[in-house]
Amino acid sequence: MVRRSLAGCFAGLLFAKSIVSASGLRFPPGKLRHYCPITAGPSPQVCISFPVPPTKLEARSPHLAHVDGQGLQEVFDALAVMQDNYYDAVNGTWPTSIDWTGAVVETILSGTLSTLTRSLSSKHAAGDAQMKQGENLISSLYAQVVHSFFGQNAVAIKYQAYDDILWVVLGWIEAIKFVRLLAQLDYPGTGHSCKYMARELSQALPSTPWHGFNWFCTFAERAREFWDLATHGWDTLLCGGGMIWNPRLVPYKNAITNELWIAASVAMYEHFPNDTFRETWVASKGFPTTNPVYLAAAVEGYKWLKDVNMTNQRGLYVDGYHIDGNKPNNVKCDVRDEMVYTYNQGVILTGQRGLWDVTGSPWYLEEGGSLIQSVIKATGWDAFRNAPVDDAHAPPPGQLLPPWHGLGRGGILEELCDASGTCSQDSQTFKGIFFHHLTAFCAPVEAVAHGPHFSAEEHAQVQAAHVKTCREYLGWVRHNARAALGTRDQRGRFGMWWGANVFSRLAVSKFTDGIDHVAPNSTDYRNEGTPHDAVWGGSGKWEPGPYKMRLTCQDESTQPARSHRVPDEANRSPEKRDDDSNKSPEKRDDDSNKSPEKRDDDPNNRGRGRTVETQAGGLALLRAYWELSQERW
Question: pTM above the 0.85 mark?
Fold first, then answer.
């Protein structure tokens, strides 16, 4: 059956969150069947309840979880700086971003709107005046999200790599989540439709959906269109499945594209479960025709990712697999690239959380929790002591910095390009991606619709375990937040290397940063581009940064010259403004906790410096800290 283009908009809105029975799905092998799902069938298998971890960190850290209103202020300050300094209100873009990083910025902005909505809704009892002020603030920021829909270079992205395409899907799903949340909290009882209005005024006043729903179907259709485009990357001829990264290069199946596929597919199922597809097409993709397509795509994608062995000895996701072309008729993924990036540890968390939400299988939460613990350990953080393993000011003999642990040092998350100031625009986005998806994974486990086989006891057990597990990340997240706040300049812009001030503002190079940049089978193509060799292919080279193919809707040569106009300072391209007129007097007078605007000894002035990507990263980190510290836990 052919999917109707707009019908699913309304069908998805009527979907009440419920749990899909696990019996009809093919799950990855391993521990999954040992834990009791919260929807055990009439004849449940032998299983054990999901374990609640010991509360060792709460006992050892008396000041662990207290955060006052200043935490939310720091989140909003990071958001305001991002929009004031980097957002172009004329074209609805972040002009210094590139296509895919702009999609990530929109995702983080939409996620932050959800955080602000929850936080401000809880304070509405203060009075009608503050309610109106909060509504005006949220609506103004949401208008910028809507404007960015039209500023997005959608036509060009369709011809880019499959990971670029899937960032778009996640971005507009995040906007949809915000719209639903605000309507639920602030407009209960109103309609959830982008195209409905009662004819009677007395009925329209209490029932008309929040105005944000006017764009719901617009966002939904772009998400659907780009998910459909991404399906061309699912390939069963090579490696028995999995997503290809870039159709214009030698086949490479990397972690990020497959994690995006899983996260995007399960999110599409959560929001549009009634979308339907032709059975012949479903079968051609190798998905079970008896299951909802989005969910089947997510489950099959997760199964493939686990089976292909994409994690190293530290428990971290490496970058991906090539197919050895020296073997005749070889179709196996057998040449693994060992490069490790932070974002490869993040996106899968949203996929795992989504799969838990729709299947009720706690194994997905356990897998995600294990990955987060591996990441934390790989930054040099002692989870038992809730402190860094190494002394930040006592590096090993002959070293300038504390030891590198795989994803950081001194307990601070770090890309391997951070300390040397050599990060590309791509890499500047990665840490923000990780913390955005950590926040999604650690969202409180909500009550679900009670089916005939729903186990309240098992569900309560999972809730308790999830709360305590995510609580234990808070000390590490706070440590990173404090470090990142120390990199802000006088305009409030975050630096890329969060450890710069912690490690005495040392300006190291690739030769002195303590990292092995020539480790075997590790290609830093996200910073240096793909090499011309037999593994990556010699016919074409991919480089990070702006996509070469740029499409435009107009011929600028035919537009009238505008040199006769005096520039409007208020609407100038924001990143070119050097004054601090957009700052409050208090912020201009008190910058004691921020670095000077320009200092020769500031390592974060090197390379690309402070950008919209580094600002979005700081925002995502502070949002994660705020969300993990809330009382609703």
Answer: yes
